[in-house]
Amino acid sequence: MTESESATVDLEIIVQGAQEGKKLELRLWLRMLSTTKLISQEIRRRLRNEFGATLPQFDLMAQLYREREGLRLGELSKRTMVTNGNVTGLVERLEADGLVQRVTPDGDRRVTVAKLTAKGETSFSAMAAAHEGWLRDMMADVEPAIVSELWRDIGAVKSSVSNHLSGADFD
Amino acid sequence: MTESESATVDLEIIVQGAQEGKKLELRLWLRMLSTTKLISQEIRRRLRNEFGATLPQFDLMAQLYREREGLRLGELSKRTMVTNGNVTGLVERLEADGLVQRVTPDGDRRVTVAKLTAKGETSFSAMAAAHEGWLRDMMADVEPAIVSELWRDIGAVKSSVSNHLSGADFD
DNA sequence: GTCAAACCTTTGACATTTCAAATATCGTCC
DNA sequence: GGACGATATTTGAAATGTCAAAGGTTTGAC
């Protein structure tokens, strides 16, 4: 490649605002992944230290908290994006701790419905408030306008990904 | 709060384009988390179906691929954001599959260096190419300019989070 | 009514994950 | 040259995660 060719190419790339060149999607993914891991680990640590809870337990309880009537395990599995088998164990442990209660409805004995106990609601309520504060703190240096933009644009990413899944995952 | 005060507040919120009101950071976090899970699961499924590999193994091999001399397990742990104990098991299994090789350098017998084998390099190379394509496909509906913006802005989030960690995590 | 297909959850095998404690080695101070 | 603190990895317990297969239950077709 001659000097002038090289200069031209560089210019084009710069003009396109993509000096990173190819693999932009890959780079975005790696950054999303590492950022998500970072935040997850921080939340996990704080949940553990301040409440003796785990993140998956918190996630599961969050779903039950907004459905006071309780949810079937399959529905919980979908909402938490966790496999069925995993939900079984999670709910078992939460039940052992008295935070969740399992009920088999009269109509359909195949079904198990999980529901927060009073203790579970109290417990989750405290964790949720702290959790929200942690996130505000962690993102304190990001402009609110940027946070909104990110929320919107990541929604677009999620949409695109949903439309290009190989498996049979549709909603 | 009087009625007129309330009305004023509502108006401000609407004008700011934040009818979601508070908890913007929380909403961003939930969306980041679910999107990341969605993509992870898709990549996991494809790695499994097409290559018989797992995502953590792929991540680990990716680090070794760009450091052909190999990496100490502690360094691998930092780069993959995985705990030390976890790296031990991952490397063990990869070694059993003949993809990675462990060496203890002469100078310091505390250290273990993991390095891709020839088979590991070939294997990873194929997976990496496919992996990059999967991401491009999944994000195909997102404008390149948006992808760039996201990359930049998520960088800002990561920065902010890094500066507000409670633990002793600094780089 | 009965059988088969569909549905919901659990189970079992295995991999990944964290944390804390244990192990092993190195470097240094005296 | 021995003890101590710092480093580096491994181990062990418990939880989370996937997948596939097995268990009950219900429903619908006949």
What oligomeric assembly is this protein in?
homodimer
Question: Do you know the CATH architecture of chain A?
Answer: Orthogonal Bundle
User: What profile does the largest beta sheet of chain A have?
Assistant: 3 strands, antiparallel
Rounded mean pLDDT score of chain A: 89
The fraction of residues assigned to DSSP E strands of chain A is 5-15%
Low-confidence runs of at least 5 consecutive residues of chain A: 1-20
- CATH class of chain A reads Mainly Alpha
Strand order of the largest sheet of chain A: 1-3-2
What is the C-alpha radius of gyration of chain A, as a whole number of Å? 22 Å
Q: Name the pair of protein chains with the most residues at their interface, and give those residue counts.
A: A-B, 57 and 57 residues
| Total of helices of chain A | 7
Shape of chain A: globular
| H/E element order of chain A | HHHEHHEEHH
* CATH homologous superfamily label of chain A: Winged helix-like DNA-binding domain superfamily/Winged helix DNA-binding domain
Helix content of chain A: 55-70%
> How many β-strand runs of chain A?
3
Category from helices, strands and their pairing of chain A:
mainly alpha
Query: What is the distance, rounded to the nearest whole angstrom, between the alpha carbons of the first and last residues of chain A?
Result: 50 Å
The total tally of domains of chain A equals 1
CATH topology of chain A: Arc Repressor Mutant, subunit A
